[in-house]
């Protein structure tokens, strides 16, 4: 399969979006909350959806109906082993923090919250694994015969909007991130990827694509988001109703503009280590936070420290882990990119 330059740029953006989202969250928790920071959340909430979309898009483009027999076994190894390893690391680190803060917490329920109920940012790995299974089933049973991606994208978008809206409207908080892990809220990404692969790379030859990618639609959605945001009526995460139309329109608008833009060395380097950065950066954020609990530093220095330590630490850990296959599987295998 030829290189798809758009995917490099999308993965690069997704990695930085997730990193920035967690950075803003730390700033608001530890220093101040401000409307500017709230607005800064908006372009970052598409980070997690980008990774799910990319996976299905690439699998569909690479394999089509001819999925290798080891497909699910390999995906399980590379996704669920890091889920357990990092889940244990983050859960134990939080357990120690709570214990030092004299906040009562039982170890077993704490581990269940993290590992069984996916109560940490690695919930994404469980979501992705479910979609890998869905992708296998969709092709294995030739489901496209009665579930064509075009009409299903429309239906799935309303289902996903309804799913996130229901939990927000009812203020329901299941244990851990169970309602985040359920594939229902992300279903639109699956059919969006399948639909675009079907017409790639001649997307602009499709009448529906030219219609939906008119700037007026994306501008309208952004204007609505900004309006409700300034009114203080929005929550910021990738699990909100307004993210569904924002992601679809922003992605469709950006793909033709990225098509002929060759990925730079920096973009490819971040792509290569993106999985490791996604998994590890909060760990290094916590190192900075640990220091600031003992030494007071100004906000500007806190932000610089977070960026430098978060990125550098994640890259170093990822490089070290990928010197051996067993450690790469545990801490996030690097992507093999063509140069």
Give structural notes:
The protein has 339 residues and is mainly alpha-helical. It is built from 16 helices and no strands. Helix 1 packs across helix 13. The protein is globular, with a radius of gyration of 20 Å. 34% of the residues are buried.
Supply database-style keywords.
globular, 0% strand, 16 helices, mainly alpha, 339 residues
Annotate the secondary structure layout.
Elements: H1 5-30, H2 35-41, H3 47-63, H4 71-100, H5 107-116, H6 123-140, H7 149-170, H8 178-181, H9 187-199, H10 207-212, H11 215-230, H12 243-258, H13 265-272, H14 274-294, H15 299-321, H16 325-331
Helix pairs in contact: 1-2, 1-3, 1-13, 1-14, 3-6, 3-9, 4-5, 4-6, 7-9, 11-12, 14-15, 15-16
Overall structural class, as computed from helix and strand content, comes to mainly alpha
Largest sheet: none
Mean pLDDT rating: 93
Residues in helix, %: over 70%
How many H/I helical runs?
Answer: 16
Unreliable residue runs? none
Radius of gyration computed on alpha carbons: 20 Å
- State the separation between the terminal residues, measured CA to CA: 14 Å
Q: What is the beta-strand fraction?
A: under 5%
């Amino acid at each position: 399969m030829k290189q798809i330059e758009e995917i490099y740029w999308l993965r690069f953006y997704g990695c930085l979006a997730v990193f920035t989202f967690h950075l803003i969250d730390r700033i608001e928790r530890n220093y101040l909350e401000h409307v500017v920071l709230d607005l800064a959340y908006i372009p970052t909430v598409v980070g997690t959806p980008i990774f799910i979309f990319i996976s299905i898009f690439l699998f569909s483009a690479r394999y089509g109906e001819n999925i290798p027999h080891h497909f699910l076994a390999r995906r399980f190894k590379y996704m669920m082993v890091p889920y357990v390893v990092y889940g244990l690391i983050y859960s134990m680190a939080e357990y120690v923090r709570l214990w030092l803060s004299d906040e009562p917490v039982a170890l077993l329920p704490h581990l269940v919250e993290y590992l069984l109920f996916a109560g940490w940012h690695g919930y994404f790995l469980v979501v992705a694994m479910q979609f890998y299974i869905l992708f296998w089933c969709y092709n294995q049973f030739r489901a496209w015969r009665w579930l064509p991606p075009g009409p299903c994208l429309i239906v799935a978008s309303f289902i996903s909007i309804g799913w996130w809206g229901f939990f927000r409207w009812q203020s329901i908080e299941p244990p851990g991130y169970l309602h985040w892990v359920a594939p229902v809220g992300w279903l639109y990404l699956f059919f969006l990827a399948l639909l675009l692969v079907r017409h790639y790379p001649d997307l602009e030859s499709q009448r529906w694509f030219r219609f939906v990618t008119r700037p007026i639609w994306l501008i309208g959605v952004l204007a609505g988001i900004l309006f409700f945001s300034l009114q203080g009526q929005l929550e910021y995460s990738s699990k909100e109703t307004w993210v569904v139309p924002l992601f679809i329109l922003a992605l469709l608008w950006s793909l033709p503009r990225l098509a002929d833009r060759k990925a730079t060395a920096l973009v490819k380097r971040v792509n290569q280590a993106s999985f490791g950065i996604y998994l590890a950066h909060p760990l290094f954020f916590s190192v900075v936070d640990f220091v600031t609990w003992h030494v007071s530093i100004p906000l500007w220095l806190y932000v610089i420290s977070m960026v430098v330590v978060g990125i550098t630490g994640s890259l170093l850990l990822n490089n070290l882990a990928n010197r051996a296959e067993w450690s790469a599987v545990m801490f996030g295998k690097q992507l093999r990119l063509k140069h």
